[in-house]
């Protein structure tokens, strides 16, 4: 249970956290949440235009301000907060406690990078921490945790429906010494940025296996491997998302040592599920911070003294008052869904929490799109330009509806799971009807046949 702490009632970092979550925050979490809040407010938000200016000069290099802030964040103990406390490498937070930090990080798209808590690193590092041998951790996990390099997760392919991962077909020939890879991939971060040094690749190593879930293997491919070519960067709705980007790749007889296989041949689906669950919830955690930022921009617009259509402040119109109310309630609902998923993961594990994770992944990006759209509407034409971060936030939210699996796939999974409960409810309904007939007989009434299970 939480330690009594006046900061929970007075510090703005905790203003939106529900009481039931505050009750679970330990002193270490209270300290980190406050630190993250102060970090984002004083170091990141004021530097947004500095980041843009530096990026414009060197499009595919990480801006110098990120390197400077990463050094400062590491010194303050703000690195790798995402790694849950059941890992020996963890800083010590639970998923629930980290979710409160991640929301604050999400207020600036690149703020998580300054704390080594950004996608795809969080999912990749958790994967490596969970499934790698001690020797593999030394080679890949610890350099990533130290911020010495970056990585990409390479799963999606252009020629198949990758939402059904059994379709993934990039060829892996496993010999006694190496793995030979041939095929195409999409969306792995661009190796144009020299900090991007390894791909965690999922491919098909045993296409004849009768069990489709055992046909695939996951391994690490160095970005500088001979035969690995980046064809181009893929823009996302017009944005190139430099300096990380989204690459399209061709593998032509790429050879990597067999020691680069993670967990073992045929274990890719086990690994993917272990990675994608946390990755999905981390996206949603950060999106809440994006939503709060859009909401705050809308409030600022409401009281802008130079914007008075028909002599009234924008916030004095009833339609906008109701719009603000809807935005506030939507964001609060988003937060409850995500916090519930994080708490479920802590209490029952990622596998048991898959419904709550899927629920978050479906609901949160869609809700955020509505919030940002309303904020754009309140800004008018300016809301569609670079004068505010709203267009980029909207694009990121739209991308997340597809990232780590499209929401339609999650809906299908949730729907299938719920359909399995139908027989139970049918049985209960039959019992209701049986009891109803008994009551009719007791009270001398004739049963009505037009309602219920008859």
TrEMBL record:
Keywords: FAD, Flavoprotein, Oxidoreductase. Residues 269-416 form the Acyl-CoA dehydrogenase/oxidase C-terminal domain. GO terms for biological process: fatty acid beta-oxidation using acyl-CoA dehydrogenase. Gene3D superfamilies: Acyl-CoA dehydrogenase/oxidase, N-terminal domain, Butyryl-CoA Dehydrogenase, subunit A, domain 2, Butyryl-CoA Dehydrogenase, subunit A, domain 3. Its cofactor is FAD. One of its GO terms (molecular function) is flavin adenine dinucleotide binding. InterPro entries: Acyl-CoA_dehydrogenase (IPR050741), Acyl-CoA_Oxase/DH_mid-dom_sf (IPR046373), AcylCo_DH-like_C (IPR036250), AcylCo_DH/oxidase_C (IPR009075), AcylCoA_DH/ox_N (IPR013786), AcylCoA_DH/ox_N_sf (IPR037069), AcylCoA_DH/oxidase_NM_dom_sf (IPR009100). GO terms for cellular component: cytoplasm. Residues 38-148 form the Acyl-CoA dehydrogenase/oxidase N-terminal domain. Belongs to the acyl-CoA dehydrogenase family. This is Acyl-CoA dehydrogenase family member 11.
């Amino acid at each position: 249970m939480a330690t009594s702490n006046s900061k929970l009632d007075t510090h703005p970092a905790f203003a939106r956290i529900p009481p039931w979550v505050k009750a679970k925050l330990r002193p270490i979490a209270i300290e980190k949440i406050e630190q993250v809040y102060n970090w984002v407010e004083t170091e990141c938000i004021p530097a947004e235009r500095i980041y843009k200016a530096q990026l414009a000069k060197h499009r595919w290099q990480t801006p110098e301000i990120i390197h400077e802030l990463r050094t400062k964040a590491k010194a303050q103990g703000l690195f790798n907060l995402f790694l849950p406390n059941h890992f020996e490498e963890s800083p010590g937070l639970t998923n629930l406690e980290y979710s409160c930090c991640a929301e604050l990080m999400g207020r600036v798209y690149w703020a998580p990078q300054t704390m080594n808590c950004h996608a795809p690193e969080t999912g990749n590092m958790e994967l490596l921490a969970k499934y790698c041998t001690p020797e593999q951790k030394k080679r890949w996990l610890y350099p990533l945790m130290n911020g010495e390099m970056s990585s990409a997760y390479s799963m999606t392919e252009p020629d198949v429906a990758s939402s059904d991962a059994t379709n993934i077909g990039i060829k892996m020939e496993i010999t006694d010494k190496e793995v030979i890879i041939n095929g195409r991939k999409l969306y792995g971060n661009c190796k144009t940025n020299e900090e991007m040094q390894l791909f965690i690749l999922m491919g098909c190593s045993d296409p004849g296996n009768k069990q489709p879930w055992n046909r695939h293997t996951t391994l690490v491919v160095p970005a500088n491997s001979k035969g690995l070519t980046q064809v181009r960067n893929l823009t996302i709705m017009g944005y190139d998302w430099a300096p990380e980007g989204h690459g399209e790749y061709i593998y032509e007889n790429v050879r990597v040592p067999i020691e680069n296989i993670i967990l073992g041949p045929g274990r890719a689906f086990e690994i993917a599920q272990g990675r994608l669950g946390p990755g999905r919830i981390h996206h949603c955690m950060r999106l809440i911070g994006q939503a709060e930022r859009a909401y705050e921009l809308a409030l600022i617009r409401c009281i802008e003294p130079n914007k008075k259509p028909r002599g009234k402040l924008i916030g004095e119109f009833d339609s906008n008052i109701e719009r603000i109310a809807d935005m506030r309630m939507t964001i609060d609902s988003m937060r409850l869904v995500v916090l519930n998923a994080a708490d479920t993961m802590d209490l029952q594990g990622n596998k048991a929490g898959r419904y709550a994770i899927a629920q978050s992944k479906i609901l949160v990006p869609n809700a955020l799109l509505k919030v940002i759209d309303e904020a754009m509407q309140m800004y008018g034409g300016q809301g569609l330009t670079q004068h505010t971060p709203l267009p980029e936030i909207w694009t990121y939210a739209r991308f997340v509806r597809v990232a780590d699996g499209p929401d339609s796939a999650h809906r299908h999974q949730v729907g299938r799971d719920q359909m399995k409960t139908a027989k139970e409810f049918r049985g209960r309904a039959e019992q209701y009807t049986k009891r109803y007939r008994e009551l009719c007989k007791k009270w001398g009434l004739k049963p009505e046949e037009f309602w219920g299970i008859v």
